[in-house]
Amino acid sequence: MRPPVPALRAPRAAASLLGPAAIALAALLGTPTVHAQQECELNGQRVSPADGNSTAGKTGLMRCKDRGTGELQREQQVQNGVFMGLVRFYEKGKLAREHTINAKGNMHGRAREFAPGGQVLRDATYDDGQERGLVRSFYPGGQLRRATFYPDRGTERAMVEFTERGQMSMLLFEQVGDEARCRAALADALRALPVPSLSASEQKTGD
Hints:
Layout: H1 12-15, H2 18-30, E1 38-42, E2 45-47, H3 52-55, E3 60-66, E4 72-79, E5 82-91, E6 94-101, E7 107-114, E8 120-127, E9 130-131, E10 133-138, E11 144-150, E12 157-162, E13 168-174, H4 179-189, H5 200-203
Antiparallel strand pairs: 1-2, 1-3, 3-4, 4-5, 5-6, 6-7, 7-8, 8-9, 8-10, 10-11, 11-12, 12-13
């Protein structure tokens, strides 16, 4: 049995960057979204996400707006009364994040987070609620901030993190069973590819 590959870390000062970032991400993912003072419609009819009877048997795109300002805050697909498919959240009229969910309510497929200007801040893929493949996060200016590789199976993880100037601040391998594969995946993340962003049409709320 192959022993775990030891983690390779940058100097202690640089490695400490991961702590606040990880805590902030955990807080973001662990905080439920509040939909206070929203009015939602589905196929022109008033519905309530908390009341399954109002959406029972219906299919379409539910749109929720702020009751006071009328700003679009949420869009979510409903299929035969089940919340399943695309989910979008807006902040001040701009798309802030989007993902898809399966019939169990777990994230499944591509998930992205955006800056107000449309720049992608995070790009990931989920499989029934679990991150899979290459997950990338970016600074608001577009520079690669972090690239993490999750295999299709197992708990291996490989991660590389950078400063805004492009200097590597951390390189980490955890429980890597196929180190070559993880290294290759990270190499793909470091290629000089254009940073994804929203097109002008995608940034519109549809109002």
